[in-house]
Amino acid sequence: MSYSETALDLLEKGQLDDFKKQFALALRHDDDDTLYGLAEELYSLGFINQSKRIYENLLKKYPDEDELRTNLADILVGEDKTDEALLLLNEIKPDSSAYVQSLMVAADLYQTQELFEVSEQKLLKALELAPDETVIRFALAELYFTMREFAKSIPLYMQIIEAGNLTFSAVNIVERVGVAYANEGRFEQAVGYLEQVHSGEMTPDVKFELGFTYLQLKDTKKAIETLSELQESDSQYTSLYPYLGQAYEAENQNDEALKVLQEGLAVDEYNEKLWLQAAKTALKLDDEDLAKQYLDKGRQLDPEDLEIAIQLSNLFVKQEKWQDNIDLVSSYLDQEKVDPQLYWNLAVSYNHLENLDKAQEAYENAQPFFMDQKDFLKPAVYFFRKVGQMEMAFTLLKKYLELVPEDDEMNLLLEDFQQMGF
């Protein structure tokens, strides 16, 4: 046996001290081809420093061997020594047999720096030069997947499958296609691939995507089953809770939905959107006190969240807490964009408190956004008539009757306006 073979045998047996001695002997006595093979083996086993040492020694002896440069550059990328790696790669010319490999190493380097477009250019060039190399197609597909450019990744993955590779480099390609389709919103295609992933290979991410896909396809029973399995196996997978809650609500199981959301909050208490969703579910169960508690929690986490503010404002209006609503909404009026629902709620509150000037201002701000909302138009007609804004009242009345022509009360009011000459 060569010293290299003995060193690998000792390494396999876990005799590290003896391995170090044999490795030193291998460096002194084994031929260069044997050492190159040892470097490859050590790299695959994770003994990067020893592999790097061999490549450095060989490159000194064979400065024209560009394959040594790419191997060494690959190690340097892993060590985050990007400048050194680039220096080596830039020495490799397009006519070199190692040029395609150097492009792939460079692509990996730029990807680690999140320079995705540069990485893409390198891989596209490599694929142009070696169109039959599956490893390049896979690397490009993975780059697009990382960039969330799923539409670009799918054809590449499909070509890998068509070539007979359901897995490549320990990656389940069928799973990748399913997840990519799901992220593209192509749920019918996604479910066909995701369901093919064997249970033993079903990672939490894939199980989540499958449950999410079932939900989008309105197959809520399968969504509940899949996401519940995920919760049982990994309760810390916080993304599952909003969608499992949605699935239960779609099945009119609001009690179960609230329970799931509460379990989610136990592991993700800083998620203001989860507090908001739990509040909405509590309202469906007519538990206004619990909804208020949850909305307050969400607002503490993100006071700028308009959706939480709107839900809280709606609740105050429903409970006829007019001043509480005014105090709440007033804190949002100085924002660059104010949701018109807040103006509507503010108008109702000021009107009930007989602050008609403020109510009119709020109604005027809200009015352009709700001309197709009968629930807004009817009380607005009465309000503007009350404050003497008859032209506005008549305009809103006509719009209301376009939406609800059978309302006898408002038809009588129309006759009154017509008698006044409108």
Helices, by number, come to 25
Q: What gyration radius follows from the Cα positions, in whole Å? A: 33 Å
Order of helices and strands: HHHHHHHHHHEEHHHHHHHHHHHHHHH
The total beta strand count reads 2
Task: Give the proportion of residues in helices.
Answer: over 70%
Q: If strands are numbered along the chain, what order do they take across the biggest sheet? A: 1-2
Q: Termini, distance in Å?
A: 108 Å
Quick one: biggest sheet? 2 strands, antiparallel
Percent of residues in beta strands? under 5%
- Overall 3D form: elongated
Mean pLDDT: 94
Low-pLDDT stretches:
none
Overall SS class? mainly alpha
Describe the structure.
By secondary structure, the chain is mostly helical. It has a domain at 1-63. The chain has helices at 3-12, 16-29, 32-45, 48-61, 66-78, 82-90, 99-112, 116-129, 134-146, 150-162, 173-183, 187-194, 204-216, 220-233, 240-250, 254-267, 272-284, 288-301, 306-318, 322-330, 340-352, 356-366, 374-386, 390-403, 408-419, and strands spanning 167-168, 171-172. A two-stranded antiparallel ribbon has the order 1-2. Helix 24 runs antiparallel to helix 25 (408-419). The longest helix is centred in the N-terminal third of the chain and has 14 residues, at 16-29. The radius of gyration is 33 Å and the shape is elongated. The chain starts with a helix and ends with a helix. 40% of the residues are buried. The model has no long low-confidence stretch (mean pLDDT 94).
